[in-house]
Design a protein that fits this description.
The structure is a homodimer of 204-residue chains.
Chain A: H1 3-12, E1 20-26, E2 33-42, E3 46-56, H2 62-72, E4 79-85, E5 88-89, E6 93-94, H3 97-104, E7 108-112, H4 118-125, H5 131-140, E8 145-147, E9 156-161, H6 165-175, H7 183-197
Parallel strand pairs in A: 1-4, 4-7
Antiparallel strand pairs in A: 1-2, 2-3, 5-6, 7-9, 8-9
Helix pairs in contact in A: 2-3
Chain lengths: 204, 204
């Protein structure tokens, strides 16, 4: 990262307690088109809006659909960062977080409860069309950083782009008000599974 | 209300800050079956789950569908009260709040931003089948009480059954943490309209 970029980000980016965040999660695989829910939150406290889209199971349209969902919401100009539940949705529809960041002008932080088994993913991808391209997107999501949030014994892991590590860590910690993961993601999960299944499901 | 009833309610009913509430609202009329969303909240603070059902536009099945949704959720045993956004859903599908209370064993509180224009409703009902029955249900919802919650200049109005007025008022005030209406209802509205329309809508 060059110094100019870092300066620009630094001067632009202030993490206030009520920073507007978009949290994105998908529901279960129940058909070809999978429901994806976005929650607009003020920090980790307050649900301010709900958006949704669909993406194709094992398709290649996650980045495009999420980018459009973000740019089309009336909350767009208030948003300061996008939080994703990992970078693969609806099976192996992989999000290009750099492209999502570039197209929306917003930093992107992907949250994982545990470090993925990359060897297993790579093997699974060989059975899908565009396996190499999907693998490239996974590699491009960048290094994985361990973060302790609300529960010291349940650290999470993040990948991020468009902001500095210290800002990404601050956003994740600030918004993890009720559990070890950011509240916008916890709510998006409850809503997506509740709507798709009739009742929200706890994480496995 | 006889003294024994009152004593039973009183001895059973304690309003704790984290009292589990179910807030129910519908989405816009977009077809014959209208999405209805229930949010399970801890007081006015914390989304704990999401359930959904559908009810028929201008149908007669709101009470039955809501009753089943409540009894089937895994949160049922934790719930202490049901909050409804008014008593008519999906057009003129009227909820029998006494029957809902009886079938679920839970107090029911219906919240209105303003006192309905009953004469207008009565005239509208003459154009629907079962108009007299719908009107009876509206009358059975009981007297309307004005409550000042978070915003002194925006009082709301409630109808209730299965609990004492002072408990109903306490629950409504306790859970109106972000606006003049209980947070479970504000969130249910954002989710129902967000899912049905792609983006949540503010109240008119």
């Amino acid at each position: 990262m060059i110094v100019d970029d870092e300066f620009e980000m630094n001067s632009r980016f202030v993490v206030k307690p009520e920073i507007r965040l978009l949290g994105v999660d998908d529901s279960f695989l129940s058909g070809e088109e999978v429901l994806v829910v976005g929650t607009i939150f003020r920090g980790g406290e307050w649900l301010d809006g709900v958006v949704r889209t669909t993406i194709t199971r094992d398709g290649m349209n996650a980045t495009e659909r999420l980018s459009r969902m973000v740019r089309e919401t009336r909350h767009y100009r208030q948003l300061r960062a996008i939080l994703l539940d990992g970078i693969t949705f609806a099976g192996f529809n992989v999000v290009d977080i750099e492209r999502l960041c570039h197209e929306t002008g917003l930093p992107v932080i992907a949250i994982m409860r545990r470090v993925p088994d990359f060897e297993k993913i790579r093997r699974a991808l060989t059975y899908l069309s565009d396996g190499e391209e999907r693998w490239e997107l996974i590699l491009r999501a960048g290094r994985i950083v361990r973060v302790v949030t609300r529960e010291p014994d349940r650290p999470i892991h993040i990948q991020f782009t468009g902001l500095r590590e210290e800002d990404a860590v601050q956003i994740v910690r600030l918004s993890s008000t009720r559990s070890s993961i950011p509240e916008p993601l916890r709510a998006a999960h409850l809503i997506a599974t509740g709507i798709a299944c009739g009742e929200s499901k706890r994480r496995s």
